[in-house]
Amino acid sequence: MMLSLYVPGNSLLHRLPAGWKLGGLCLAGLLVYLLAQTVWLLAAAALAALLLWRSGAGWRRIWRQGRALLCLILLLCAFMAIFDSPARAGVAALRVGTVCMLGMAVTFTTRSGDLLQVVERVLQPLQRLGWVDAGRVALAIGLVLRFVPEILRQYGELREAQQARGLKARGLALLVPLIVRTLRRAEEISDAIDARDGGGRQL
Questions:
Q1: Are the C-beta atoms of 162 and 186 separated by less than 8 Å?
Q2: Whole-model pTM over 0.85
Q3: Do 106 and 17 share a structural domain?
């Protein structure tokens, strides 16, 4: 069974309806993009970090789930610092980092089923027009939410197995079997969806 990023709790974030949290996340992303002064971006990042801490996930889990995002942000910052300017790179890093922390806070405090219900309700008008299948889109998003921690779990297992054999955790030695396992798992999920003809929405 795939893992979930949801962390049980009774904080204010946990009690807020999923629709409010998703709407707030979209609005926050827009506002952060409109902010230009570094002091306000730092304040927004500090608030996002506080909300993430209040999610109850714990810094160890936050680091485990967010280190890949941190690497991407640092790469983005380095790229912009070289080809644009260090100041604009810092602004971009603060914007992306703030939105990522808010997204993680929402994910940690919201059951995936609640998120999918909101997505499906939002897409209902488009489904009535015949443009999308709301159920399938919600299912695809749910699979992504569940697949990310699954990949991280597989990575941890491979790393521990190599360390148990006295081998160093090198890039290719981890990457190749991780890709194979991920593709195999993705194929199993795809077969299951095809067998149920898209009817299995309870993940």
A1: no
A2: no
A3: yes
Per the structure block, which two tokens stand in for 203? 């993940």
| Torsion-angle region of 170 (φ positive above 0: left; ψ -120 to 50: alpha; else: beta) | beta
3-state secondary structure at position 65? helix
The alpha carbons of the chain give a radius of gyration, in whole angstroms, of 19
Q: What is the DSSP string of 108-163?
A: HHS-HHHHHHHHHHHHHHHHHTTS--HHHHHHHHHHHHHHHHHHHHHHHHHHHHHH
Residues 6 or more apart whose Cβ sits within 8 Å of residue 188: none
CB atoms within 10 A of CB 18: 19
* pLDDT tens track for 102-120: 999 998 999 888 888 898 8
User: Are residues 112 and 6 in contact, defined by beta-carbon separation less than 8 angstroms?
Assistant: yes
Among 85, 110, 135, give the residue marking a domain's end.
110
State the pLDDT confidence band at 2, using cuts at 50, 70 and 90.
very low
Q: Does some domain include residue 154?
A: yes
